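re: ur question from yesterday

yeah so i grabbed the chain u mentioned. its 290 aa long if i counted rite. heres the sequnce exactly as i have it in my notes:
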Amino acid sequence: MPADNNWNYLPNCKVPEGEKLPSGTLRYGAVVEYDGSQFCGWQRQLHCDAVQASVEKALSSVAAQPLSIACAGRTDTGVHAWHQVIHFDTTTVREPRNWMLGANANLPASVRLHWVDKMPAQFHARFSAISRTYRYLILNRQVKAAVMHNGLSWCRHPLSADVMAKAAQALLGEQDFSAFRGAGCQSNTPMRNVNSIEVFQQGDIIAIEICANAFLLHMVRNIAGALMEVGKGKQKVDWIERLLAGRDRTKSAATAPAAGLYLIDVGYPEQYAIPYRQPPAYLLGAGAVQ
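ran it thru and got these structure tokens back, copy pasting raw so excuse formatting
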């Protein structure tokens, strides 16, 4: 493919086919895990601590020069990630292991890098991704959690995971998700393609796992809130289908809390060889992720 004569390099930018990074510049990819309960989301902010700022500060310390990063998907305040993917450009040469260990030595205990490697110029954490998978965990019992109280949502009313799973099937495929779109969403279109959605239960924890090409602002939490209304028996199974058809956010349920939401996986073409990290038992293990 011929080079794009209108393209100009910026750090971490999307590099068109046929173009190269500037001489001496390397691109690295990394997998990041974080507990989002003490952060105001992923994106760097002036008024509060963000995950992005913590990771950039740690990597900049290893590089001995300022670095910026790009991620697969920006998570909101209080949302966690088991498998966030980032990339960064740098002229500093370090072994992948040294990037990882050095960054972890400078990160707060709630953030860790699990993998770092050199990537081709055309890799981009956001634009190369073909899917994102989120898992929403609901503690369904009379008493709130003490342990993991920042890592679980909570519903005291009995929920039927089977009924929720049946209702969730209406969300599959490419559709207009305006009914589950948060106010302030900056996406150019409400269309999203949901590849899979599963509702499963282990003990008193119910998980909603959804995989799509991309997500709208608060989309997963809005879906979780609606499915819980169905699970309580307050709405019928076909309510989700009717909400989608109506495309009216004001007719749906309240947004579910952030505490139970995890970015579990980001999918890429095999050529990039980003390792899959199976979720641990405390996040309900392999669950529905394939």
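noticed a couple things. The longest strand covers residues 191-202. also The chain has a mean pLDDT of 95.
anyway ttyl
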